[in-house]
Amino acid sequence: MKKGIKGRLITIAVFLFIAIMFLLPSTPIYSILPDWWGKVFPDKGVSLGLDLRGGMHLVLEVEVEKAVDNSIERSATSLETALKEKELDNFTVTREGRLIHLTFPADQTETVRTILDEDFVNLVTQEEGGGKKVLTLRESEKNRILTTSTLQALETIRNRVDEFGVAEPLIQKQGENQILIQLPGIDDPDRAMELIGKTAILEFKLLDETHAILNEFPGRIEPGMETELINNFKDRIGEGNEILFQRTNNEETGENYKIPFLVKKGTVMAGDLLTDARVSIGEFNDPYVSITFNGEGARLFEKVTGENVNRRLAIVLDDNVYSAPNINEKISGGRAQISGSFTHQEASDLAIILRAGSLPAPVKVLQNVTVGPSLGSDSIRKGWMAGFISASMVVGFMIMYYRLSGLLAVMAMTINVILLVGALATLNATLTLPGIAGIILSIGMAVDANVLILERIREELRAGRPVRLAIDAGYEKAFTSIFDSNVTTLITAIALFMFGTGPVRGFAVTLGLGITINLFTALVATKVVYDYLNGRKRLETLSV
Fold this sequence. Notes:
By secondary structure, this protein is of the alpha+beta class. The chain has helices spanning about 5-25, 35-40, 50-55, 65-85, 110-120, 140-165, 190-195, 225-235, 295-305, 345-355, 375-425, 435-460, 465-500, 505-535; strands spanning about 45-50, 55-60, 90-95, 100-105, 125-130, 130-135, 170-175, 180-185, 200-205, 240-250, 255-265, 270, 275-280, 285-295, 315, 320-325, 335-340, 365-370, 430. The chain folds into 3 domains: about 5-50 and about 370-535, Multidrug efflux transporter AcrB transmembrane fold (Up-down Bundle), CATH 1.20.1640; about 65-140, 2-Layer Sandwich (Hypothetical Protein, Haloacid Dehalogenase-like Hydrolase, Chain: A, domain 2), CATH 3.30.1240; about 200-370, Gyrase A, domain 2. The strands form 6 sheets. The protein has a 4-stranded antiparallel beta sheet with strand order 7-8-2-18. Strands 3-4-6-5 form a 4-stranded antiparallel beta sheet. A 4-stranded antiparallel beta sheet has the order 12-9-15-16.
């Protein structure tokens, strides 16, 4: 055997071996292999996409304008805290829309200006005079928030999904302020939706326990009665207060109800100072969430608890009170706990949300589709059935029309499919229904290339050339046509991958890989067989 032929055969054998090793975990054979196999050889095969495996498809829209409103609200709260720390007297900080109205004694103007210049560089003064200032967010800061809110939401959602434990999720930006989420194999879509979509703005607020209206507050209300209660009392609770509710469940009776609280609107501390949140078990086997603050948060929490001993501090997440413990003493060390009437799973989900961080703005669900596993299995069956029927028809035609040479073309097509699916497994790509369509199209392209070669060989044989020269000329003359058609299709596949999303990219991946592998199998794999046969015995005739 000539050295060149041997080298090409070894190359094909190595590629086939690698492809089969990566492909094995996707086949039923893998389940009967010994345990050591997965430690030595690859243990991950082709990942199935949402349309084949089942799961959730979500399109969320980030309400970026509300991120600007949230930033202004936090600035107003921080400004009020800063003025208190400087021990200014007789000042007020109120917010109206996107404006912050600040009033203060005229003789403290310089102190206020210094605080604003040093600590609130993102606020600009619109109006001022006579102990009054009207502030708003700087335009550059507003634009930055609008630009980055979607990217921040994307990272936060990705962190939550990673904590949730979904394998092979697809999470990517779509358009200006939309996020596409695909969660294959999810078996609890309601819980996933709750986890992903929760804004998770954690705040610590003081309760107003001295207001006379508390004597008229009911101890608890039925779920759904919250709006009626708020409307009954909203004109009498004062501008600085709001009514929030805690959801409670009676484990003995299974009854659900809400407990109303009169809460100060000002946030004494925000959840962005958290560094960790873990589920712990109390002495009565009830779960709670243990939270840890960073250095700044620990100092602030110590200060807040030290100044408000014997008062109740509401722990509020997305305007829902989780607990409202009494502050018995100053709390040092930067640790606290959130307890409430929730199950271990609810406590675990809360810890996940707090660890992943809050969304910069609320998200709105534009599309929510759940694909069942049975539908995914049906798609796989029909997709492979279409591939089997088309491949069988192609195999039958090639063998009938081109005889032995057609059989060699079928061999090349088989190698093409093995290498293609093996390449998908090697890249840990996700196979979708459009991806199966790409594989079927690649089979057609592979056959088309071999038809061009065989027809050129036929032409050379009819012209009276010897078999070996006819084969070499056939490959040489067909090369340009095969290369041009495959490269132009490859350019299309690259464009689809760059500008497409979801299933379109899956189709582009399989088509692009199929075309690249097709060039190898059509121009190398079949040619080496002809060269091998010619090397062993000079062919006088060729079945083509």
